[in-house]
Amino acid sequence: MTSTSPLNIALIGFGTVGSGVARILSTQAKNIAVRAGREIRISRVVVRDPDKAREFLPAGVEVSTSIDDVIDDPQIQLVAQLIGGIDPAFDYMKRSLAAGKDVVTANKALIYAHGSELFERAAANERTIGFEAAVAGGIPIIGAVTQALTGNQILSLEAILNGTSNFILTRMLDEQHAYADALKEAQRLGYAEADPAMDVDGTDAAQKLAILTQLAFSTPVKLDDFVRQGIDGIELLDLQVAADLGYKIKLLATARLQNKRLEISVQPTLISCDRTIAQIDGADNIVAVHGDAVGNTTFSGAGAGQLPTASAVVADIIDYATGRTAVTFQSILRSSQQEPWPVQPAEELRRRYYLRLTVDDRPHVLADITDVLGRNEISISSVRQDETPETDEAGDGTARLVIMTHTTTEGRLRAADTELSKLACIRGASIRLPIAD
Q1: Residue 184 designated active-site
Q2: Where is each ACT domain found (predicted)?
Q3: Which of 247, 275, 350, 417 is the most buried (most CB within 10 A)?
Q4: Is the dihedral of CA 265, 271, 275, 277 positive or negative?
């Protein structure tokens, strides 16, 4: 360790992640000082309730409720912004940068929504932003894409980026639980929020994919630019049928170059069971990166949680202390100036599909459905109908049809959806999922 003066930092927020950062900095203080070349010292903490008891808060740290105490302290060099959401986090980061302080953050929603503006502000103030913890928790995917793999043209990303959804789908299949029961278990164990909407509707994974897409392909995208579908419409039946056919259903985030255009989507997807990405269960995440030089590389592990996320924050703090961030952040800024790839319209996505429909159990129903698919140029690979009891002469029974298609386009499926919804034989909502063999 050198004799350089300590690095004084402030933590904005001392919840799950903030206390995890303090814990790592406390328990690994000597090792971190050696790796950073200097002592890292928490000087201030900003919280909503200053009287709340907190573990791992170092003695002598000033605790307040005002960001002004950090902004006005000339001894604070680095701010760890560890609160979620946009407001007031966005304002806090802008003020920190304007005050000449560098920033690290775990706030994925903020980097997605305002990353470009914040990076520009950081550059204008000759500051840096570290955000490894914003995507995939403890998995070092930001560093991999922006440093280790920069000798490549990245050709594709395939990822499971939301641990809540992955946990729910795993428990549904392993324990034969209904979706609602698996969600309640996820909430009880702390894997899901009281309001899990952003996790289960695909928003969280889509925001993370958008961040990775900007870094890997120098292409900014918004959620409206690509197909986004959550797991909240998946039933246990779908998982069971998929398993019988040799697949697992995962919330798959994909960005790939195809015919010089960027194909991007976040959807529950049938993935062949023999693929590594299908074998990632529970709350874990995985990111598979294919580069033109390196080929396939895979990064997996805990995508959320106190210590995995805090680990990424501490790594950013150490990178700042050693001067690495000053170099890598400039590289990120330069990459953002490259010509973006055109984004392929959603209607032109080409995949195989899984269709599950509940229909009247009577003659000619299958013919009506295949007629609709045929007129929309959708070729069928296989049809499966669950055995049902005999119906009376009025034909009051229902049956479930599972249709696997050959490769077709999202646009053709959407057109077929519209026609199928008008058939009198269709009962309730249908499920349509892409297949990744």
Answers
A1: no
A2: 354-434
A3: 247
A4: positive
> Which of 170, 228, 220 is CA-nearest to residue 197?
228
Pick the CATH number of 7-134 from 3.40.50.720, 3.30.420.340, 3.40.309.10, 3.90.550.10: 3.40.50.720
The answer to whether the annotation marks 18 as part of a ligand binding site is yes
| Cα 403 to Cα 405: distance, rounded to the nearest angstrom | 6
CATH 3.40.50.2300 fits 141-303, yes or no: no
Question: CA 263 to CA 281: how far, in whole Å?
Answer: 25
Please indicate if the annotation marks 325 as binding a ligand.
no
Residues 280-320 have pLDDT tens digits of 999 999 999 999 999 999 999 998 889 999 999 999 999 99
The pLDDT tens digits of the residues spanning 228-280 come to 999 999 999 999 999 999 999 999 999 999 999 999 999 999 999 999 999 99
What is the tally of helices (H) and strands (E) in the chain? Answer: 15, 17
CB 310 within 8 A of CB 20: yes
Q: Active-site residue among 30, 184, 208, 248?
A: 208
- Domain extents for the chain? 7-134, 141-303, 346-432
Query: Is the pLDDT assigned to residue 1 strictly greater than 60?
Result: no
Cα separation, 385 vs 366, in Å, equals: 10
pTM above 0.90, yes or no: yes
